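ping. complex inputs:
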Amino acid sequence: MSIGPLDDETVEKYQEAGEVLRTVMDESAEMVEPGVTHLEVAEYAEGRIRELADGCAFPANISVNEEASHASPGRDDDTVFGEDMVCLDLGVHIDGYIADAAVTIDLSGNPEIPEAAEEALDAALDMVEAGADTAHIGAEIEDVIRGYGYTPVLNLSGHGVERWDAHTDPTIPNRGAERGTELEVGDVIAIEPFATDGSGKVTEGSKNEIYSLVNDRSVRDRMSRKLLDEVREDYKLLPFAARWFDGGRSEMAIRRLEQQGVFRGYPVLKEEDGALVGQAEHTVIVTEDGYENITK
Ligand code: MN
Ligand code: MN
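pong. complex structure:
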C-alpha cells in the first residue's frame, strides 16, 4: 500500500524495520537490571539488529540518569546498571529505511518521569495528521510534561527520517515553538519527548563514542583511508560507534578523521548533575487518514 510519495516497497521496508525494532527493543529492555553491563545490552541489541535487519541506523544508545542522548558504551566499558534511570534508544534500517524508537526502564524509583514522557508522546501522536502544525505538537508535549511538574528537555527535538539519513526535517519540537511546519502525507517522523526534573537544557559532556561521516574527501594516511572506505561502504552517512572497529589503531584513525573534519563526533548530551531524564520515542508515517506507528 503506497502512502503519498512512498511506494509499496518503501512502505514495506519501513514496516519491516519497525517490526525488527519492536522485537529487539523488547528483548533488550528485559536484560536491563542491576549488575548487567551497558556493553552487554548494547552488543546484544546491535547483534540482533544485524541478524534480523540490514543494520543499525545508529549505535545502541544507553543513557542513564542525567544523560539524555548519544551515550553508548566504549569497547572496554565495564559500567554496570545500578539504581538508574535507563533510556534505551535503538535504530534499525532495512535498505537504508530507518525506524527509531526509545523506551525508559526505571530502576531508580522515579516512574513518573518516564510516565510523563510516555504520556506526552501519546498526546503528540494523537495530533499527527497531514496538515498538523509541528509547533502545536511541541506545545502539547510541553503541556503534558509540565502537568506532571517536570520540564521537557527544550533543546532536544524529534525529527524526520529519510533513506540513509537518521535526522532530517521536519523538526518536532518538545516545546511550544513560534513557528512550525505542516506535516505532509508520506512524511516519516520520529517523535521523542524527554521529561526531566532538571533544568530542561542539555549540554555536551566529554564522553564521545559515536561518530558519522560528514565531509567525504581523500585522506593521506593508509589507516585513515581504510577506515573511511569501510565507513562509506557499510554505514554511509549513518552514525557508527568507535567500538565497531577493532583495535587502538582504528581509534586513533577515527580521532584523526574527526580532527580533519571528515567525521563528526556526537558527545553525550546531559542534564545537570543529579537530574534524571526519561525518554519515549516512536517512528510514524503520516498517512491520508492520520498515521501509522511503525515501531509500536
Ligand atoms: Mn532515537
Ligand atoms: Mn530520534
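The chain has two domains: 8-204+273-293, 210-265.
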